[in-house]
Amino acid sequence: MDEKVQIVIDGKSYDFPVIIGTENEKGIDITKLRGETSYITVDNGFGNTGSCTSAITYLDGEKGILRYRGYPIEQIAEQSSFVETAYLLIEGELPKKDELSQFSQSFTAHADLHKDMISSFSGYPQGGHPMGLLSAMICSLSGYYPELLAPEPSQEEMKKTAAQLLSKVRTITAYTYKQSLNQDFVPPRSDLSYIANFLHMMFSTKEKEFPIDDIIVSALRSILILHADHEQNCSTSTVRLVGSSWANMFASISAGVCALWGPLHGGANQKVLEMLEEIHQAGGDVQKFIDKAKDPDDSYRLMGFGHRVYKNFDPRSIIIKKRTHELFDKLGIHDPLLEIALKLEEATLKDEYFVKRKLYPNVDFYSGLIYKAIGIPTDMFTVMFAIGRMPGWIAHWKEMKENPKSKIGRPRQIYTGATERPFVPIDQR
Ligand code: ACO
Question: Is the Cβ–Cβ distance between 19 and 5 less than 8 Å?
Answer without folding.
Answer: no
